[in-house]
Write a structure and sequence with these properties.
46% of the residues lie in helices and 13% in strands. It is of the alpha+beta class.
Length: 468
């Protein structure tokens, strides 16, 4: 253990050099990929049209969905042909693989980027600051931008905006809500038709849902909060002060949220809970422990509705918004999602924008509503949610209605628009673990991370104020 337990571990100078070396190696690999092994896709179904190169990261069955949307666009008009290309990999160098985001940066620097790209990584502030992205609002008339800005749900506007300019148009956001097992409520003598409306009431219900063996080991978790960033929104806290353009890790409601999470772990035993979770299978798809009954109540995203349809169609479950504590915010959660961006050096920006407007539903919400049902995606404007085909989808999957309701809420938060978004999320995870393990107090954990994030932001800027 370090001498100062409240200081998060940071890379040493040698470690930093290793990271820099890995990044330089990755860049060299990407350059070789771009200029030696990569050629723009030549699949041409409509040779007389303007080509729009579209990079995305969806694979497997998801790629089929994307290809169907592309084909719908290509047959809807006679000017552009969108040519999709899968660019796999995450945003970092792992095990020698080169991330799709790094490929995009190198391609842009080399003057040969795609015309548009589907993204879900936290890249907009860093890329926009470096001039890598085209502001989408400059591709619209003032009236078009005003209309779109007013129609978009608040979180959709926020996730695409940096320093007052709009860079990313979402094609499906994520929200989080409660999933619970009614049968567990009945077993505990609780009414499954009356889910707790406050966080305080949820704490009382959760205690009655826990199960133990004769040795006192947990055999079923009633409810255990995770992922601090979700609860900051629910508690009415904030990670960012837009007016002052600064990170606010130690906001009183942030401290209250982490203090409550610490209290839950103290109550049920951090090590007991960890030991129980360690014995569970993967949290993905058919192995999700909620399906087996290992949890009575969990917080998760809307995609689980589709997974439950596929892997546990007979399972009785329900959804509800996350209950807020006294002084908190209703219909609140953290949100991220898929969005489309246009590189600053794209050759066919107008074609890219036409495709983005088509897919997102900005031009024709009723038409695009069908795409959203294909992907199980949340709408970005009310007109999509109200479209007949989307309403039919909600009737078929009523559990999905909870997430659509939350999507429209002004209390949904996104990651702060700062240059170190991914780093901030990583350090929040450290703060949560350190506080819940009782290594430091909740305030100390948030103070330590706040200082570290501020330092990283300072290190990223040159004396001129521009980022390195």
């Amino acid at each position: 253990m370090p001498d100062d337990p409240i200081t998060p571990p940071t890379p040493t100078g040698r470690a930093r050099r290793c990271v820099q070396y890995a990044a330089a190696t990755a860049a060299a690999v990407v350059v070789a990929w771009l200029f030696l092994g990569y050629a723009p896709p030549e699949r041409r179904t409509y040779p007389g049209r303007e080509k729009v190169i579209f990079w995305h990261m969806w694979t497997s069955n998801w790629a089929d969905v994307i290809n169907d949307i592309v084909e719908r666009f290509n047959t809807s008009q006679d000017r552009y042909e969108v040519v999709p290309l899968i660019i796999t990999g995450g945003g970092a160098v792992r095990g020698g693989s080169v991330g799709s985001s790094l490929k995009t940066l190198i391609a842009t620097a080399g003057g040969d980027p795609p015309d548009c790209m589907g993204q879900w990584e936290q890249v907009i502030p860093a890329w926009a600051e470096r001039g890598v992205l085209t502001p989408l609002d400059e591709l619209m008339t003032p009236d078009e931008w005003s209309d779109l800005r007013d129609r978009l749900y608040p979180a959709v506007r926020a996730i695409g905006t940096y320093k007052g300019r709009f860079y990313g148009l979402s094609t499906g956001m994520n929200t989080w809500a409660i999933y619970y097992r009614p049968s567990h409520f009945v077993e505990a003598g609780l009414d499954p038709n009356r889910f707790p409306e406050t966080l305080e009431a949820l704490d009382q219900v959760a205690e009655q849902l826990y199960c133990y063996d004769e040795a006192g080991n947990i055999t079923r978790i009633g409810f255990m909060p995770e992922w601090l960033i979700q609860w900051i929104a629910v508690f009415g806290g904030s990670l960012y002060d837009a007016g002052a353009d600064r990170i606010t890790l130690t906001h009183p409601r942030n401290v209250a949220a982490l203090t409550w999470m610490r209290g839950c772990n103290d109550k049920y035993g951090y090590e007991k809970v960890l030991r129980f979770k360690t014995g569970l299978p993967s949290t993905m798809a058919a192995n999700w422990p909620f399906i087996s009954g290992a949890f009575s109540i969990v917080v998760d995203g809307q995609w689980r509705v589709e997974q439950l349809r596929q892997y546990a169609p007979e399972l009785d479950y329900r959804t509800a918004p996350i209950p807020a504590p006294a002084g908190g915010k209703p219909l609140a959660c953290w949100s991220n999602g898929n969005f489309m961006v246009i590189p600053s050096k794209a050759k066919n920006k107008q074609g890219a924008m036409a495709f983005m407007r088509f897919w997102s539903g900005v031009d024709d919400p009723k038409r695009a509503a069908e795409f959203y049902t294909w992907g199980g995606w949340l709408p970005i404007v009310p007109e999509i949610a109200q479209a007949p085909i989307y309403q039919a989808y909600l009737k078929k999957y009523p559990a999905f209605r909870t997430f659509v309701k939350i999507m429209a809420s002004p209390n949904v938060q996104v990651t702060p628009p700062v240059l170190v978004q991914r780093y901030l999320l990583n350090r929040l995870t450290w703060a949560e673990e350190a506080a819940c393990r009782a290594v430091v107090s909740p305030r100390q954990a948030l103070e330590a991370v706040g200082k570290e994030v501020d330092r990283e932001l300072r290190n990223m800027r040159l004396p001129s104020g521009r980022p390195k």
